[in-house]
Fold each of these.
Amino acid sequence: MIAIVDYGMGNLRSVANAFEGLGANAVLTRDKDAIERADAIVLPGVGAFGKCIENLRKLDLFDLIKDLLNRDKLYLGICLGMQILFDSSEEAPGVAGMGFIGGRVPRFAGGVKIPHMGWNTVDIVKPHPIFEGVENGSYFYFVHSFYCEPEEDGVTATRTTYGTEFASSVQKGNVFACQFHPEKSQKIGLKLLSNFIRLSTRASDSKNAPTA
Amino acid sequence: MLTKRIIPCLDVMDGRVVKGINFVELRDAGDPVTNAKAYEEQMADELCFLDITASHEKRGTIIDVVERVAKEVFMPLTVGGGVKDIQDIRDILLAGADKVTINTAVVENPLFIKEASETFGSQCICIAIDAKRKGDTFEVYTYGGRRPTGIDAVQWAIQVEKLGAGEILLTSMDRDGTKVGFDIELTRTISEAVNIPVIASGGVGTLEHLYEGLVDAKADAVLAASIFHYREYTIMDAKKYLKDKGVNVRC
């Protein structure tokens, strides 16, 4: 089962629709047990960094998710679900993120319109099964004003240019997170999500496999 | 590089598309899901639904439309027409839309932009500006183009950005429905005055007009209804034309 974490931010319906349309066993939930038991968790999100962290704390999910990340739970973060993996964001000074990936989240600057809104290309710099069938340079849909700046080497999975070149997705262990919205990126986005579903099925199989 | 967006607009009344794609292959040209799917197939970059439902009792029908479309079409959806308060926005977004466009309600209460963007994020608050030439300036109109406000469109665009709007949908009332092309001066002036994306609307009759809107008028996206509706061109025709002329589009 895939748990789509319902923490009161927008865009949840669209993500749930996409997983449902792909035939995945996915549920929208804020139940701690369900999230902990799930084979994979998805953290979608549109909105503000500070509000997102505040909601996760209010629902007592912040520490749980942080713990699951460190226990290498299969995770898909979308947009804010990517940004909260970092230490902090310029959008909410003083609010601590999950700190799972070292780095910060600055605002776009210098001669570009904000938000970065629309379809942009994604260059794969670190091949991963989640990109199976996704060509290098594919277009995905973006809508954001802040971007992630990882300090750690080797976590950037794709790069995109908007005024500056930034990490449009990251991967560390079983954690994959993207700034773009696969649930809004037509066929190519659904391809990426179906790859994630496949990975979650594998996680489920290995969990349920009889031990010798 | 970020591509320029082509956004077809579907007029919806009482839950049915009344100005959509007039394809012979479509068994039912009024079904919103069928229309949306056809545009998705043509690689439209976003879809815009304009709710023109007149009767108050049937206002809720647009929610049902969004819910049904969002279950089957996986692309950005924008909904406008009659949005008046936070609850309207919440209902539309929860149904699966990504953005709402608002005109009259924010002209009457500009702080509504601030409240809406702080509640849902700037990225989903698109302010619709209907502008009409008045001498050397442009005046903002409300109530579907029926009421002049005395407000200068360029100043208003700057103000809506300050209040937290994430995007502007700019319609030239002088050009709307004329098919003689965008109002380049209006569009370029506003596009250069703000630092948020501007969608140009009103007047598209040819593919050349799309080029003018995106290049000469510096719009970030173009919205059109009738050239796609009456099947004069598909979205892909438009994109191929633009690409050949050096415009960065997704195709």
Note: Chain B touches chain A through 32 residues (CB under 8 Å).
Amino acid sequence: MKRLSGGLIDRSQHLSFTFNGKRYQGHPGDTLASALLANGVQLVGRSFKYHRPRGIVAAGSEEPNALVTLREGARAEPNTRATMAELYDGLVARSQNHVGSLNFDLLAVNDLLSPFFAAGFYYKTFMWPRAFWEKLYEPAIRRAAGLGELSELPDPDAYDRGYLHADLLVIGAGPAGLAAALAAGRAGARVILADEDFRLGGRLLAESDLLDGAPATEWIEAVKAELESLPNVRILTRTVIFGVYDHGIYGAVERVSDHLPTPGGAVRQTLWRIVAKRAVLAAGATERHIPFADNDRPGIMLAGAMRAYANRWATGPGTSAPVAIFTNNDDGHRTALDLMARGVPVAAVIDARRGVERQGDYRLLPEAEVVGTQGRLGLHSIRVRTSRGNDTLQVGALGVAGGWNPNVHLASHHRGRPVWDGEKLAFVPGQGGPSGLFPAGACAGKGSTAEALADGLRVAQEALADLGFAAQAVPLPHAESRQDNTAPIWHVPGKRRAWVDFQNDVTVKDIALAHKENMRPVEHLKRWTTLGMATDQGKTANVTALAVMAELTGKTIPQTGTTIFRPPYTGVSLGVLGGGDTGAHFRPRRLTPTHHWAKANGATFVEVGPWMRAQYFVRPGETHWRQSVDREVLAVRAGVGLCDVTTLGKVDVQGADATVFLDRLYANAMASLKVGMVRYGLMLREDGTAYDDGTCARLAEDHYVVTTTTANAGPVYRNMEFARQCLWPELDVQLISTTDAWAQIAVAGPKSRELLTRLVDGFDLSNEAFPFMACAPLTICGGLRARLFRISFSGELAYELAVPARYGHALMARLMEAGADFGATPYGTEALGVLRIEKGHAAGAELNGQTTGQMIGLGKMVSSKKDAIGNIMSRREGLAADKRLLVGLQPVNPADTVVPGSHLFTQGAPRDLAHDQGWITSAAYSPHVGSSIGLAFLEDGANRMGEVITAANPLQGSEVAVRVVPSHFVDPEGGRLRA
Amino acid sequence: MLIPHPLLGLRDAQEFTYLGDARLIERPTSGSEADLAEYVYLRDNPAGVHRELWFHEQGDRSWLVVTRNTLTHEILGAELARDVSLARKGETA
């Protein structure tokens, strides 16, 4: 097809692209939509539900129909609006939602079955049998109804996030936005001008009207040049402001390289958080349709879009046949005039209004309506009802002008309620809405170019005065000031389906059905019919639907409801919201001081919160993790093992009142702890539940180091600061987290004392001088400052040795070297777990936020002599009466495996909640016992030693007979750790 | 959202951890289980101006009492929780 004259395309360059495998040509300045129309392609997709052939409807981001899959492979992006896809050389696009070719979609049978697919059909029909929904109905419906498909490949592109700051953010670069930006730029304010288009000008680019007697582009280019010359102005094209957030923060997505043949390399899109003191919303308006019978055929477009394609993109509506216009306002006539001026033949203007006059040399059918259309894959003819009878017009395209809806979207964030303007027949921004955001121009109902220019300037100057900027003169060009005179003609009644929402296949009949079913409030209407959902969020449909519902209920439009909009204004990709935080960058990863040593020594790692911890160390010949873990456990029990326990939280507590502070924090008594000693400490939540445990070491009169579990290192520190600052600010105490400052290595096993003797600098490690639960600052290896704690998680004679974090790696190597003749063995978190289960120590699985001090056997520790956090509530009825107790379990048949998560039942009792006796929290294979063992909370556990009960795990289908035993499988008297 | 930290000026809300009603500062000292039960479980949830605790976890580790309108998210002020607590204790002493 031949392109029309003029337009903002660069005819000197040719870009080739393919659509559904067929090759076409376009020019720089084209969108995929304009290039398709210029190549005579009207059919671009199939509809959501009925698989009706569909074409391009609009020329901007409101496009409901022309959704294509852009690019191929991992970069394939479904549901891309062809109207927003900038053409580049080599662009590849495919249509969506059809089985077989676009021309012969096998699922078009849905259209014949349309009586079955009306609103609410699924809710009523696919109710029974229940199991069929998930297995049969839903997959079948999802296959038949839907949009594009994801590639399911990892996204190869990079995204970024950033902050921008401005005095004035101008949203939209049409006449109102440009006038506002110019005023603010000249006044010296920091300005950001953002527009979703790739070219400044907004609707001016789509019109033929002159500014000061010259083409509008001359004024636009002059303004652009001036704004670009100002250092206080930043222009963001290809940038959509998608939402207004708290305190003047605006969400924006800049499509940095989506318009390039290969978006990779640089950033594809950037998420900007724009912090703006004031904002001018100059988002323009969106034209609406007038539903009539079969109004969805390819070739039927919004009239304003048809005009935009002719004026800006020098293309007709994809046909060489004549064109008709159907309108309820004067703006439709402008389209006819512009098309004729560009050489597009106009068959007629069908105006639904009474008493209208021709504005040019075209056939006018007044008081007339389009009542039907023909053409399977593209429009062939329309039927028109006039006062003199029906007529058929042979046309290849039809422009529909139903009036303009102001783009109030952003103004209706933050509880803004648009109000109905009965004269303009449109919702305009009302009270409320984001503070600091001021609508101007067409989105405020001031749609002529002259009004928009003046309004943009006025609103910007008011905002600037508010911010203290002195106004500068901004002469505005002379521009058209026509009014549309839109009549309240919302749809053409008839028997056949008339589409209101193209994207969701919602027709006037569906709205009538919703009315009949009493789904009349707009919220119900939306959810019952799916009107206004999906990628376009009803930009062209919502107000029309409301008008139809108003007609059915006999109420006015404002009585019927208001359509408001949530963010985002247009779809935002998850990729850009994620920014660079994907894969390994999803969250920070913390490495222990001995990480690289462990890696070099065969460690397999496990994620523990943000930490990577050594799970076990594989030695040559070991083929199963259990071999490694059993060996490590036995090495600790027989000789000496080494484990990096740096990840446990450490908090340094200092001050004259440190003792008082810790005594109020721990449930058990701390005030009596002597200098040079360590005590186990249990923290409760204020509601009395067990919260966290650790050790509390008193290094000096006014200096303690307390430890927390790895998982609670952050929260416990936060709570300690809460207690210090909010509850007891009068206490002289200071806290700092030293988790990262000290590397700490557990040296555990009967040979641990002998090994440490080889490292310490003349420090007496004898049992008399440094007994169980002693602690001391000391030096090791000839002067390195260190801290030694004689504490044991394994039940063996054991120590924890802390050195400044940077010496952790060297310390591990030195301990291994010095302990070589004892068979010193590094062990990981698995062996650590086995050792503590054998010893019956509680850990995360036991301290899960549902258990009490009594349950873990520490009830007597909770002091009744003091008011510490949680102590009083721990004694309340119900909690205190709980007789469940932590016990050990051993399978009666040593070959059986105890499964954690199993629930406990008296033998032969029904497996139901009423007979539930408790549950297994932790289990492991114990090389010491020679079988699988477990820890469990058991009802009345203290009185059931020796009883055989059943551990049932219906999820794994296991039932194991287990014997109740004390939770200490190893050295119940504690002789080893005191040796 | 931006929070006016009394020591550090305007800070992004993302640097903070939220806790809730600032009345958590008023921990009862009576030793009564009923008083503690009310302290632990009963809180107002006003639609409007609310005083609440925020922790500057990614910052200077101050606990703040922030006055916020829960309907508009307008922040009307922020104080160090320590000062609030000390003032309260001074009054009741």
Note: The longest helix of chain A spans residues 449-466.
Amino acid sequence: MAGLDLPTSGSVTLLGSDITKLDEDKRAQIRGKDVGFVFQSFHLMPRLTALDNVMLPLEISGDRYAMDKAQEALEQVGLSKRSKHYATQLSGGEKQRVAIARSIVNKPKILFADEPTGNLDIKSSGAITDLLFSLKELINTTLVLVTHDLSLAEKCEEVFELSEGQLL
Amino acid sequence: MSRGLVYGLKKFWSEIFSGDLLILFFSIVLAVTSISSVGFLGDRLKSSMQMQASSILGADLVLRSATEIDSKYLNLASSLDLKSAETATFLSMIITDEDNLLTSIKAVTPSYPLRGKLTVVNFDNSPIQHSGSPPQGSIWIEKKVSESLELNQSDNIIIGNKNFIVEAIIQDYPDRNSSFVGFYPVAIVNINDVDAMGVIQTGSRVVYRQLFSGTQKNLDRFVESLDTLPPNIRLQNAIDVGDNLGEDIDNSTTFFNLASLFTIIISVIAAMMAVRRYASRNLLHTSLMKVFGASKTFILGHQIMQLVLLIITASSFGLIFGYALQHLLISTLQGIINADLPPPSFRPVILGLITATFVVFATAAPYIKILSDTEPIRILRNDFTIKLSSNFIIYLVAFFSMFGFLGILFQDLKLILYIVITLVVVTFALYSMGRLLLYALSFMQFSNGTGWKLGLKNLVQRGNESILQVIIFGLSLLFLVVLAETRTDLVDSWSETLDEDTPNYFLFNIQEYNLKPISNYFEDQAQITPDFTPLIRGRLLSAKRPGSDVNFDNLMDREANLTWQNLLPVSNKLVAGKWWAEGDEVKEVSVDQEIAASMDLEIGDELTFSAGDKTFSVSVTSFREIEWQSFSPNFFFILSPAAGKELPNSYITSIKVKDSNKLMNNFVATFPTITSVNLEAIINQAKNSISSASLAVQYIFLLTLIAGVLALIASIYANKDQRTKEAAIMHAIGASRAMIFKSAASEFFILGILSATTAVIFSTLLSSVIFYQFLDLIYSPNILILGLSFLLAITFIFVAGVLSIRKSIYASPMITLRDS
């Protein structure tokens, strides 16, 4: 759905574009402009600070105000005081907050989250869930969640269930 | 791409300091340091040698003849904007009221010398301004003349029919070896006084020279116009003389080039490993960038900018280090070079930059492609492994373009070809041995998991990774061992030429009746038995090839020292033909191979000589290579006893005497007619040269050694992440620290043994090729060096390997696993 991969058959339309007919660079363009991602294992760059990690999507698109926007995103996830810390110096919950800040920094029209709480303890998990949903409202985006956590799924407006590759 | 370039520019320093690019950075620094230091050195030595060569000739170009040279060449030179001068040199007596002295008289025009410096001083050593030649009627003399004849400034002397006033002392003049080598003191007169002296008559031995200097282009045009030079005129030019000068340090520069080539190859190996680690660690970064919208060209721009900046910064450091090292080498080699060196050209800087570019792009090209082609889906799959097999062609192209470049850089395709063949053969051998070992280990039972067995199991499980490591260790070690052996043998071969028994005195002018008394003197006084060699003054008159009417235009045009011998002298090596048998009655001659080549002689040619009042013909039956540094009497022509025994001869000998002063002073007093020449100053100069060259060789070797260590470290660190993670998992599932240590230790121990064994075996092959083909030395394996290299290599790989994972042995497995 997010245009990271292509289906073996059929087509996928993302934000009005049939991404199966686009080449990788065109799909990348759409992702960079209108899509945000949150991953289960955070995927922060260990050698970059929290701020640099958040700036990454904006730097790729050549945004002149990347730093200000990244700082703002970190404030929105409550980590402005940890902006100079490297990813390796953060806890699991903090890492996921940075990852969320990174996913919303380009104000995406659609936000994909792949098991966003899968690697977190119960307390952090609850906090991250609340953060994701409140940010969804704040930046007025669509959140697409993939999860095994039924309680998390219940918070969504629409739920699709996949089992052994089949949509139930 | 431009956004990618800007992003690469912004991230460069953080990438460097993060450590992933650091080994690559050092590899380039080392390769550039090596090529530029040797480049700067070679550049300056070459210019210096040309300067020295010009100064030895006193010009850039010389026409030389035993008869007067036509003035048309002077006119031709002036039409081509060349400066010219003339000299005529001959032996004549300088006569005073009380005494006389045989002197080499050099008659010169005012423009002499065109290159080099002529310094004349007053008798009180104050300098004299002069125009190049004394005024007519005046003479400048060497101090030896004034001392022998007890002359003072403004004294009168006579040469032939002409009176001269002694005007000055010659302190230095350039073309010292241009005529009668050696023992006659020199005096300089104005060329317009020659006729008035009346000493040159038909049959007199005179060397006439026309000297020319100017731009290389004009000199080349001049030489082109000379294509029909008469056979009696010889052309000498500074470049030929420079080549001869260069022989002294030829082997050391061969070694410098070899070391520099090896440093680049080892640096490339280190760079390959570093780039591989850099790429695998950057796969996450690039995949993420793709997820966040980076295009293929953005990634390409980012990578290229990083590598270009890397080339610029690392080359700058390399060039600075290279220039500094070259300074160190020059100051070390001062004893040999003995001249003010001109500044280097800009060429080594360009070479350094090109080398850096090749090292980086030959090693990084496949990975740039992998990174820019990476699929963003890797992020969801958590798959950050690199498969190189699909880029094999790129690697192959990079490999061969690298060697093509090295071939052009070192202008020695033969050497590069040998290296490529060795690399391919040794890589194949290392690969086969690695495979064989893994195959053998796969049959072992690992069920009772002791530490060392676990290590062996890991080796098998890592499969290709283990084999790659064996290949990298093996190749780096191979080049290091070859260079260590070359260095040691080269230094030894130099020292051997001047051992304890090197003669320090030459005695000549010895007559038959002197032989017994001289032997007795040295046997009584110093327990030495001199070995006398017959010395015949002869002149080569003609040569002919039986059954052919070939003309020999390049025959040696001067008197030569001949000898006759029963046996081939120790310092000579027969390179063609046969030495005569004892009692052989045929008249034969053995010729120095270089002189033979210069005169186009072949075995079987017939040479006619004159010696005293006799003329005789001999057949050329062999060519010899002469070791001139032996300080023994050596001869261009050695006659068979049948040819030489009856000729008028004196004797010559070289001896080694300790505490020579008193002994030789007494000798001179006892045998006043014998000429003795003290060689100690020359020997000391040669000894200094050898120790300087040896030291310079050590410095250059050190650079290769550092590159070798860097390659080994890069290779060990290439899969450090994987080992660290494995150690943490083993910790987590209950393995003790001792067990993890033993496991890693046994792995590195086996890797070390395998690569060191292969490297040592193959180093003997490569060394023998290099010794024989490039250094002209005979190779015999140096057991000490080979053994030491073997042990040191195993120890180094073992220690560095264990150290590389020490952190994960002692760290909490939770932290290691979480961070990974």
Note: The helical segments of chain A are 24-34, 50-61, 66-76, 92-104, 122-139, 150-154.
